[in-house]
Amino acid sequence: RLTQRRRRAKAREIVKKTAMHRLHRLLPRVALATSPLLAGGLATKTPARSQSTATQKTLRVAVVQMLVGSDKATNLKNAERLVNQACDGNADVVVLPEIWNSPYAVDQFRKHAEPIGHECGPSVSLLKTLAKERNVWIVGGSVPELSDDKVYNTSPIINSDGVLVEKHRKVHLFDIDVPGKIRFFESETLTGGDSATVTPLTEEHALGVAICYDVRFPELAITMRKKGASILVYPGAFNTVTGPPHWELLARARALDAQAFVVCASPARNPDSAYQAYGHSVVV
Question: How far does CA 19 lie from the centroid of its chain?
Answer without folding.
Answer: 35
